[in-house]
Amino acid sequence: MKTVSIKTRDVIHRTALAVVLVSSVFLLAVVMIMLLQYRQIKRTEPLNSPALSGLRERYIADERGNEQLKEQIRQLDLLSRRAWFTGQDQLYTGGFLIIGGMIVLLTALQTAASSRPFPDTPPGGGTSTDRAAARARTGIAIGAGAVLLLAVATVFLVKPFALPAAKARAAVTPQPAETPAAPEEFSRNWPFFRGPDTIGTAGDRKLPGGWDGKTGKGILWKSEIPLQGYNSPVVWGNRVFVSGGNKKLRELYCFNTADGKLLWRLAADNIPGSPATPPEVAEDTGFAAPTMAADGRRVFAVFATGDLVCAGMDGKRLWAVNLGVPKNHYGYSSSPVIVDGKLIVQFFDENRQLLVALNTADGKPVWSADRKTSISWSSPSVINIAGRKLIVTITCDAVEAFDAANGSPVWQLNCMGGEVGTSAACSEGRILVANDNACAAAISAADGKLLWKTSELTLPDVASPVAFENTMYLFASSGVVSAVDAATGKKLWEKELGSGFYCSPLLVSGRIIAFNMEGNAFIIKPDREKYIQEATCSIGEKVVATPAVVDGRLYIRTDKFLYCIGEKKE
Amino acid sequence: MNEDIRQDSDSAKQVGLSRRSFLKMCGISAIALAGSAMVYKRKELTGTVWQLDPEKCIQCGRCATACVLTPSAVKCVHCFARCGYCDLCSGYFVQKPVALDTGAENQLCPTGALKRTFIEDPYFQYTIDEKLCIGCGRCVKGCADFGNGSLFLQIRHSRCKQCNECAIAVACPASAFKRVPVTNPYLMKTDVPGGGKA
Amino acid sequence: MNILRKMSACLALFFAAVPLLTAQNRFPKPDFTNGYKIPELSPLPSAASPVERLMLSIAPYLQYAVVAVLLIFLLLSCYFLYRKRSRRGVLVMALATVAFFGFIIGGCICPVGSIQNVAAAVFNPAFPISPVVLGIFLLPLFFALFAGRVFCGSVCPLGTIQEIVNFYPLKVPPLLDRILRTIPLFYLGFGVLFAATGIGFIICRFDPFVGLYRMAGPFFILTSGGGLLLLGVFVARPYCRYLCPYGVLLGWLSRLSSRRVSITPDECIRCRLCENACPVDAIMPPSPPNQDREPMRKSLHRIILLLILLPMTAAAGGVTGYFLGNPLSLLHPRVELYRQVSTELAAGERPQTDESLAFRSAGTPVAELQKEVSAVVSNIRLGSCILGIFIALAIMARLFNFSKRREQKDYQVDNSLCVCCGRCYNVCPRDKRNRIMLKESE
Fold first, then answer.
1. Which residue in A160, A213, B77, C375 has the most C-beta neighbors within 10 A?
2. Is C86 domain-assigned?
3. Structural domain tally of chain C?
């Protein structure tokens, strides 16, 4: 091995130290420049330049066509991009400069170190072995103790993590100890579209006296509904539920029956599978045509997007699903009903015609009837026949009945046509259907046999028929009201009433009440011989939704408002 | 720690050595056992590389910022077979563009990496300039929300450093990053959503 | 107007969009009339760059090559250290490591980080681990059994970068040194726990030097790497001594190694030069004559005391670990997600974070996440409890080591601390090369 003289070693040592000095200064400078550059890049990053995005927003929002602004955007965009990319390149070059500088520095340092004079023997004796061991023990104990203290402090200082079990479980899953509402509760309230029995007959309920939208007579309260919708109000206890929606947002609303105050609203958003762009709907159907359903524990709302939301009575969302986006040229409009803890939803699409029953507690399907039929805009009705609950649906070509318990088809009758928007009525074991461009027909509820069928009538296309004592009453979109013998299908009488009916008529305490498109309510005494009008009142606004009648009060939904009609309690 | 290694007396030395060799035997067999057990249990003989599953991606934009590299190793890829060649491309244009041209004020891409070329009326082809792409996924989001979803993000293995723990995988809100066999390192989109092999 | 027409046509198409679930595209593939052919992909990852294609085709073999290079480097280091007794050779190997395992490979995967892969694979059968990673993890340990920590000296990319900058090693006060040396034990424990329970690979996340090798990385990591290197000029190998978790494993195994760095090839003259030169304080002085030492029974008493304390310490460690499991589980991403989602759902809010948005739009039931999270939390609790016991035992073992009476004749290295840098060779006056130099200078 070659060795060098002491003198040469010394020269090498000094030179190396000089190189060390120069290269450290160089490295320091490069590092400083790179740090500045790094800051610059972070600032001009094309992704988050607030100046540029601000200009863009301004340009697109209100100053479209402003040539000067456009030019400004283009220049700023180019500038920031150039700055960003050159900055990147410079950083990269800087990295290599640092590596180069480091190599020089390290070599110099190495040379300096290896040319250092040979060390002299250190003075004094070494540390005692025992002392060193004692010190080591102390050190280990202190180190471990410090970490132990840190751990204990963490345990005490970090808020105890509310383990998912306790708090969140209650929030996520509904209370298991709930009892379903009794059938009497259903019939006392107004849980569905067309009342508790889903066929528009509401038994002995007091109808309020007269009212007038212009003078405010008889109107207890009037509340604005934030979003528009053609669904009808449903009432449970002291709450009224309606939904509303537009292209952007669909919501559920709950009003207090006492004063009309909006108790809560709940957005139907962030539902898995919900389409980013809602389907197109006709203006007179809208996004919230289906009426909500309530079972006293929860409320349910379906929208034209196929979103189905279940909320608690307190407005907390319990579950939500997307049933699939209904491809429907007017917009989805079938209202759900609840039978024995199952939410029955008729879902139409050009490809699929489903009738599904979902568990009201969690939205899990209980049964599903997949059938080949056509689309419709009508809602399922629940008919009690011979101790069995039937779900009766009308599609554009058939009337069908399913067993509510398991969804098995009971009968099917192909007698319809056109575009069906009306739902069924029922009287004396006969299912009564009527739709414009199709027919009016009576079907035996027990076996699905066609009793009669006729097209010689002025048929409705939106308002569903209502039946009373062997008579079916039809309220057509043309404004013609007619009475038909439910046993034979013979026309009994016909009456022209001006404006047309979209709102389904209701039979309350032996009177028929129906609103026409002008907001006039006709209270009619059903009679087989002639048209008997008992009263007419005006709300002064277009009424499409079917009203709800509970506790002597009438809840009417118009385009923008929810009215409560009744007598003030003194 | 500073355990005695060489003892004074010969006898102690022997005892020390035999104890050590016994422990060493234990150590060797433990290492060998652990190694062979793990190799036996798993059949993954090929290595793995990081990749992101475009079907899980929610286009949050963190790929551009979370990668240890700047610009990120994630870049946009275009599956032409799925593209609709739209004039109003929601991956190319900002929402409600003033005009359908290549002006900076109308473009979604912050770096101008998406190029638009005319094919025939009314179709346009969109290609990605990989040098400019920073993997922010804005075009991907636009295309996924309103288009066919033909644009998607992939880790480019020419850039990826294959960190033991991918920094973007840690940051990814959709857990879209996973390790895939090195022999098949890309997760491509095909001509129809969720469709078979194209 | 033409533009408007086109726009409205496109918009109409938007609305007519078929939902994705029908496996159809919103916009159908156009029929081109001018002969345009639809390209496959842009850019084509498999065909775009020949370099990438080449890299991809050799990638499976490249990984095995890395293991082979590791083996060769380890063998060469042993050769330089034990056969040639050459500090210069060790340094050359260190430089080669910085170049190859550092700048070329890019830092990943290294044996230090592979601890976590192995831990994750042992506790989670679904975690993929290739024989390559296993080899990288086991090879240095195997060498440690026979030849001490040669890996640290010249084959570890983290150690070598500190080795080559360490020019003016200063002595760390012995007590402080001993305190700081307990940190790696905890780092190893938590690294394994976090990897095994799926919290994350913290050892990789806080690897200070990998950012320098890649010339990219988060600001914090780059600056802490630079800072450690700067510190490393004066304090030898700060990461290796006071942080490195792999060093703990290597230390344990290297105690069994019969081969070690023998400072002098000749008879020791007790000049204490090597003790001073050792940058990591691994050289132990010979024990003094018996009359200068504490009586034998004192150490015996200490050992008895330790044995009595042992079960209590283990219990304390276990209990602390169990309770620490609760705050630790907050670090797990799924637990955090669950917390976020459940608070949002309880308040009826829309998703506030990207994570919760992704989770909620994926349609996974919350109950499933809840089940997963409670499993994770109980795993972390159990793991943390075991970790507490383990660390308590390890600490007790260390105390035990320093409690028993030590007998030693010459200046000798402690194999569990020695990082095999070979600096002591350069200062020993009995070394052949130094003898020649000293003779010349006289």
1. B77
2. yes
3. 2
Same domain flag for C233 and C325:
no
Give contacts of B 135-194 with C, CB under 8 A: 146-149, 154, 156-158, 161-165, 167, 170, 173-175, 179, 182-183, 185-186, 188, 191-194
C347 within some domain: yes
Residue of A nearest to B104 (CA): A74
State which residue of chain A sits closest to B97, comparing Cα positions.
A60
Length reported for chain B: 198
Question: Which A-chain residues 283-322 have CB contacts (< 8 A) with chain C?
Answer: 315-317
Interface test with B, best of A41, A64, A82, A138 (most B CBs within 10 A): A64
Residue C243's domain comprises 59-263+271-286
Distance from CA of B140 to the nearest CA of C (A): 14
Cβ of B146 within 8 Å of Cβ of A73? The answer is: no
Burial C253-284 (b: 16+ CB within 10 A, else e): bbbbbbebbebbeeebeebbbbbbbbbbbbbb
Which DSSP string corresponds to C83-148?
IS--HHHHHHHHHHHIIIIIIIT-S-S-HHHHHHHHHHHHH-TTS---HHHHHHHHHHHHHHHHH-
Task: Answer yes or no: do C244 and C309 share one domain.
Answer: no
Say yes or no: B79 contacts chain C, CB-CB below 8 A.
yes
State whether C223 and C147 are in the same domain. Answer: yes
Q: Which of B70, B96, B136 sits opposite A60 (nearest CB)?
A: B96
State the CB neighbour count (10 A cutoff) for residue B21: 12
Min Cα distance C235 → chain A (Å) is: 15
Q: Are residues C230 and C359 in the same domain?
A: no
Do both C219 and C358 map to the same domain?
Answer: no
d(CA A52, nearest CA chain B) in Å = 9
Residue A513 φ/ψ, nearest 5 degrees: -120, 135
DSSP bridge pairs for A412: A400
| Cα–Cα distance measured from residue A465 to residue A334, given in angstroms and rounded to the nearest whole number | 16
ipTM for the complex? Answer: 0.80
What residue of B is the nearest CA neighbor of C110?
B164
The one-digit pLDDT tens for each residue of chain C (442 residues) are 444 444 444 444 444 443 333 456 778 888 888 888 887 766 555 555 677 677 767 777 777 888 999 999 999 999 999 888 888 899 999 999 999 999 888 878 899 999 999 899 888 877 878 888 888 999 999 999 888 999 999 999 999 999 988 888 888 898 999 999 999 999 999 999 999 999 999 999 999 999 888 888 888 888 899 899 989 989 999 999 999 999 999 999 888 887 777 777 777 887 888 888 888 988 888 877 777 777 888 888 989 999 999 999 999 999 999 999 988 998 999 999 998 888 887 777 777 888 888 887 777 778 888 888 989 999 999 999 999 999 999 999 999 988 887 777 778 888 889 999 988 888 888 887 777 777 776 6
Q: At what angle do helices C333-347 and C354-362 cross, to 10 degrees?
A: 80
CA distances to A147, A218, C192 from C189, rounded to whole Å, are 12, 77, 5
- Helix, strand, coil in percent for chain A, rounding step 5: 25, 30, 45
Tokens 């030097």 identify what position?
A: C209
Between chains, do C367 and A142 touch, taking CB under 8 Å as contact?
no
Tokens of C411: 């200046």
Q: What is the pTM of this model?
A: 0.66
* Min Cα separation C442/chain B (Å): 36
Contact yes or no for A400/A407 (Cβ under 8 A): no
A135 shares contact with chain C (CB less than 8 Å): yes
The label of the residue with tokens 């029953």 reads: A357
Rounded to the nearest angstrom, the minimum Cα separation between A156 and chain B is: 28
Within this chain, do residues C150 and C63 fall inside the same structural domain, yes or no?
Answer: yes
Separation of alpha carbons C312 and B32, rounded Å: 34
C353 closest CB neighbour out of B23, B86, B173: B173
Phi first, then psi: give them for residue A358, nearest 5 degrees: -110, 145
Query: Strand, helix or coil at A486?
Result: coil
